[in-house]
Amino acid sequence: MSIAMHRATPESLAGIVETVAGWQHPGGPVQLHPGDLGWHWRFGTRELAEVVRVWTRDGRILAAGMVEDGLIRMGIAPAVDDDAGFAAGLLAALPGGTQTVEARSGAAFGDLLRRSGWVADEPWTPLTRNLTGRVEDSGLRIEILDAHHVDEKTVEDRVTVQRASFPHSTFTRERWQTMAAAPPYRRARCLVGYRPDGEAVATVTVWSAGEGRPGLLEPMGVHHDHRGHGYGRAITVAAAAALQQMGSSTATVCTPGSNTGAVATYVSAGFDRLPDVADFRRPTLPDNDRRG
């Protein structure tokens, strides 16, 4: 039973999203999520298909990943978590040029990478909030953009706050429209938070993987002119409430461990910090061991 890697096609993406959604389960690792695919979809369907790979055995997708600049962010089906044979086939079928692997699921695969000499890279901090209890009021006025409710002024504010939250953001109204028209957004919402004077100060997009499964925050940002007032905590609480309304079991997020401010914001919003996880980095061979 050989493992085969396939490049996604525009026609296959919706099915891949549903497959990845089915791998999300309460208590599981914060791995590749439909929201990761949905957020990247803002660049276009063909552009997303270019970077998505899937691995199959007997025609069944058992792993999926997004490739970018030598990094591959992976999700692995729980059914093959301890499958050493699948792990070996997966490692052998990684795309050429892969230097870093984000593999937070797949115990056998992670163990094989370590035994093959791959080393720990940058630590990431996963955080999660259980949504079985009451979620408090955020204290912000929240406007919601979902697949059925699109207000042009709110879209404009969503884009403005995104660009003011991230220095190198290329987000535009057109990219929001592309993302919102894609299949993952049918189970997603953008939230924009406003001060009492009507100024948009924070935003977040939340992605459901389906009833009873973990939901994802990706991304969350606070306008650079309005930081230090608790708006990050407030919009994160609002995100948890939105995911609860959508039937998610938990709200999850993962941020670089070095981003202590972000970690503190999520903790203040009721998220539990889980143990840090590290990507796997291909070891650099000594000069005298290199060939060609």
Write a compact overview of the structure shown:
The chain is of the alpha+beta class and 292 residues long. The chain contains 9 helices and 13 strands.
CATH architectural grouping of the largest domain: 3-Layer(aba) Sandwich
Radius of gyration (CA) equals: 19 Å
How big a fraction of the residues is strand?
A: 25-35%
Structural class: alpha+beta
Query: Uncertain regions: pLDDT < 50 for 5+ in a row?
Result: 287-292
Q: Major sheet, described briefly? A: 13 strands, mixed
Order of helices and strands: EHHHEEEHEHEEHHEEEHEHEE
Number of distinct beta strands: 13
Mean pLDDT score: 95
Outline type:
globular
Query: Can you tell me the CATH class of the largest domain?
Result: Alpha Beta
Protein name: GNAT family N-acetyltransferase
Domain N-acetyltransferase: 145-292
Organism: Actinoplanes flavus
Pfam families: Acetyltransf_1
How are the secondary structure elements laid out?
Blueprint: E1 3-7, H1 13-22, H2 34-40, H3 45-51, E2 52-57, E3 60-68, E4 71-76, H4 84-92, E5 100-102, H5 107-115, E6 119-130, E7 141-145, H6 152-165, H7 173-180, E8 188-194, E9 200-207, E10 215-222, H8 231-245, E11 250-256, H9 260-268, E12 272-273, E13 277-281
Parallel strand pairs: 4-5, 10-11
Antiparallel strand pairs: 1-2, 2-3, 3-4, 5-13, 6-11, 6-12, 6-13, 7-8, 8-9, 9-10
Q: Would you give an account of this structure?
A:
This protein is α+β, with helices and mostly antiparallel strands and 292 residues long. It folds into two domains: 3-123 and 277-281, Aminopeptidase, CATH 3.40.630; 130-273, Aminopeptidase (3-Layer(aba) Sandwich). The protein has nine helices and 13 strands. Strands 1, 2, 3, 4, 5, 6, 7, 8, 9, 10, 11, 12 and 13 form a 13-stranded mixed sheet that branches. A hairpin with a 5-residue loop joins strand 8 (188-194) and strand 9. Helix 4 packs across helix 5 (107-115). The longest helix has 15 residues, at 231-245. It is globular and about 60 Å long.
